[in-house]
Amino acid sequence: EIIYDKMYQTFINYKEEYFFYSKIMHEHSKSKLLEIGSGTGNLARHFIKNNFDYNGMDYSKDMIQLATTKNPNSHFIFGDMSDFKVKDPYECILITGRTSSYLLDNISINNTLKSIHKALEQKGILCFDFIDANRFFKKINKDEKVVHKAEFDDKFYSRDSYFEYLPNEENFMFRWKATYYEKQSVIAKDTSTVRAFTKNEWELFLFQNGFEILKFIDKPSYAFDAYAVVAQKN
């Protein structure tokens, strides 16, 4: 989690992320939000600083602890986005950092959207980003190394990534193998199975679960081509 926290602060411009999502919230006059996939609280601090009624949720207790340390006066909870309940409905729910990529099967997607639908007020807004399968799979090559470099606290980090399409899986899945370095020394390795989506898939998932799509936004993103979706609870 500490490696993730340090490196992603250089990969992602959290100030720009805040402007992106806060603009959508202002357009719809929303201020009370839940961020799903709140991670180590880097985006949270911008919402908190700008007086949004912010709450964060993540599936990693270590990340929640780190986020709470950074933002001691805010509220972070442990939760599974496919099965959660809230006492009071939110005006807006955000799924940030392409966390949707870890919804690997259709049951998880539908359960997540059902939980979010119940947690939103009437006409509440859902906004999330996803990896665009149409563009991403045309680019990747399993033998091609993708390198991301980062400098934080006068230390130099890098991550080598390999992406492999998994054609035998039911959905648009790929394997992401990553090795993290501090200078030349390996400090961590990670292998994940991740899902990409098409716009048409999300149009159908959202319709089936009581949402109206307001717009798709071509969203700048490190490493992957991505879209953001803005949808409203019917």
Major sheet attributes: 7 strands, mixed
Task: Calculate the terminal CA-CA distance, rounded to whole Å.
Answer: 37 Å
| Widest β-sheet, arrangement of strands | 3-2-1-4-5-11-10
What is the residue-averaged pLDDT?
92
Instruction: Give the overall shape.
Output: globular
Beta content comes to 35-45%
Spell out the helices and strands N to C.
HHEHEHEEHEHEEEEHEE
Q: Any chance you could write out the topology, listing elements then pairs?
A:
Layout: H1 2-11, H2 14-27, E1 32-36, H3 44-49, E2 53-58, H4 61-70, E3 75-78, E4 90-95, H5 106-119, E5 120-131, H6 133-136, E6 146-152, E7 155-165, E8 173-182, E9 185-195, H7 199-208, E10 211-219, E11 226-233
Parallel strand pairs: 1-2, 1-4, 2-3, 4-5
Antiparallel strand pairs: 5-11, 6-7, 7-8, 8-9, 10-11
Could you give a quick summary of the protein structure above?
The chain is an alpha/beta fold and 234 residues long. It has helices at 2-11, 14-27, 44-49, 61-70, 106-119, 133-136, 199-208; strands spanning 32-36, 53-58, 75-78, 90-95, 120-131, 146-152, 155-165, 173-182, 185-195, 211-219, 226-233. A seven-stranded mixed β-sheet has the order 3-2-1-4-5-11-10, with helices on both faces. A four-stranded antiparallel β-sheet has the order 6-7-8-9, covered by helices on one side.
